Amino acid sequence: MKRCIICKKEIIEFGEKHFTDFQSIFPPKEFDKACYFVLRDGSSGPYYPFAQKSETGSFRHLRIERGFWNEQIHLRLNNVYVSYLKYDWSAAMCACGVSNYSGYGRLSSIPEKYTVCSPWFDTENDKDSLQKGLAELGAWYVEHLPEINLSYEKQQTWLDKDYRDAKITRAYLDEHLSELTEPEIFELYRTVDHLAGEYEKSDMKNRKNSLGYRAALSGFNDFCYGKFPPKINHWVDELSEMMLSKKVVKGIDIDYARSFAIKTLLYLFHDSQEANYPAILKHKEIWKYQ
Known about the structure:
By secondary structure, this protein is an alpha+beta fold. It contains 9 helices and 6 strands, in the order αββββββαααααααα. It has helices spanning 8-18, 127-143, 145-162, 164-176, 182-200, 203-210, 213-224, 230-246, 254-273, and strands at residues 23-24, 36-38, 44-53, 59-69, 72-83, 121-124. Strands 1, 2, 3, 4, 5 and 6 form a 6-stranded antiparallel sheet that branches. A hairpin with a 2-residue loop joins strand 4 and strand 5 (72-83). The longest helix has 20 residues, at 254-273. The radius of gyration is 21 Å and the shape is globular. The N and C termini lie far apart (49 Å).
């Protein structure tokens, strides 16, 4: 089989031009293998993710998938979803060893009625044909934009019901992140990394795991409470009170509110840093000794 032409530059330029207000969030080389999709027949190819920040603070996502079989390039638009994470290929709680879950902050499933996916557009394996296929994909996008926007709107409604903690925390961080200096940002990463190592060796982890799913889920969050740098500890307390007053889940108490606040803060804090410090968890030398 002939090798497919390199399409990355053309696809990213096309998406940023034709998907209004969307930007490419294709990862650095350290993460680019994460951006692959697999079809039922086992064939695979790269996808090119794009994101647009909404007025609510969440991110609207979509991606272009590029397959190659029968010596042809195949393109489609897929994965239209809303999330409170922008860089879901690097979803983590500021530490590689703790809870790397790309589905955080988005719906676990979208009703079929509101799922949007284009047909495949087939092109020959050359640059001119690629541009023609992208133009066809762009025309499909324009034609189906009302359907795409409706899907985003419906998902946002459900997301804000299921992830009120994420909505509260994203708004809080958007307001307060500018208060941190670069050394303070790296100090939080160092602290979380150290706490993750301590937690892995602690009796608390085993004890929480034995108590069931909810206890295991909150274990690391509870372990961290009060151990962050002072400014972040203050943020956790403020967010905890907000989680409690907004009753983000049924039967919430102050301890559970703190667990929600720490988990969501660490996910969204890390997500907010990817633009400034790409692949920060893969390059610990950037911050470890600062």
